[in-house]
Write a structure and sequence with these properties.
Length: 258
């Protein structure tokens, strides 16, 4: 019989299109688009696929705006062909980057319970600010001691993300003076002798029960009708400069010199 040899060439299947996958569909506000999160596959006539190298395609992300919330189409084109595909990615709303406390109370009287008074604002990554509701933040004042004057740190945290927090300082003032005791004073003056507050000594009593020495710089003295040219008894009214309602009285006499 007659035989003849011949060669048959089987060609690789032709590329019929591309398929694009996004490994990251959502981006935080202000975050740049990442081309590295795009994977491109060449599809063939026989239904098979192969991953394309980055040199084989071009990514068009010109519509993407990192500073504008919304969805954006990312277009990928296979170089040297008309084949293209696209994916959609989203930029999320601006997120809170920090919080701040303003118009807050920083001075407390001795014995006064701590109570947060002020405003808490969330500052977003786009620098916009929104005042938070009471249930959106937590205020902690664990070390606050109403019975101990001094400075205390208050912690404020954002409930949605407690790692976002800030602190501020409050002061518990010294106990108020509520009374005074005059323990020593010059009781007798001679005619023509000028009255002197330096002759007065005593103590002031604070609301916590403690006492401090009374000094002339702390008081004013209402000498009433005192007259060093006239013999007689005179009532002196001693008042605390910072709080004139705290006062005490004593009587002195003007006599002839012996």
């Amino acid at each position: 019989g007659f035989t003849q040899d011949y060669t048959v060439n089987v060609f690789a299947p032709k590329v019929s299109g591309i398929r694009v996958e996004s490994l990251q569909d959502n981006y935080r506000w202000g975050t740049a688009f990442l081309s590295s999160k795009i994977e491109v596959y060449k599809t063939y006539q026989d239904g098979s696929e192969s991953k394309a190298s980055s040199s084989e395609y071009t990514i068009d992300s010109s519509e993407y705006n990192a500073n504008q919330e919304g969805a954006y189409e990312i277009i990928v084109k296979l170089n040297g062909t008309e084949y293209q595909d696209s994916v959609s990615v989203s930029v999320n709303a601006p997120h809170v980057s920090k919080i701040k406390v303003s118009n807050h109370k920083t001075q407390y009287d001795w014995g006064e319970e701590f109570e947060f008074v002020g405003e808490v604002k969330a500052i977003y990554i786009d620098k916009s600010e929104v005042e938070l509701n009471d249930n959106e933040y937590t205020v902690l004042s664990e070390n606050y001691n109403k019975s101990q004057s001094g400075e205390y740190t208050v912690l404020v945290s954002y409930n949605e993300n407690p790692t976002i927090k800030t602190t501020y300082t409050v002061m518990v003032n010294e106990p108020k003076i509520i009374g005074m005791n005059i323990t020593s004073y010059k009781k007798e003056y001679t005619l023509y002798e000028t009255f002197s507050p330096d002759d007065i000594s005593g103590t002031v009593v604070r609301e916590d029960g403690s006492e401090d020495s009374l000094t002339s710089s702390m008081i004013t003295i209402d000498q009433g009708d005192y007259d060093d040219f006239a013999l007689g008894d005179y009532i002196m009214n001693v008042q605390l400069k910072d709080d004139p309602t705290v006062s005490a009285e004593f009587t002195i006499s003007v006599k002839r010199a012996k």
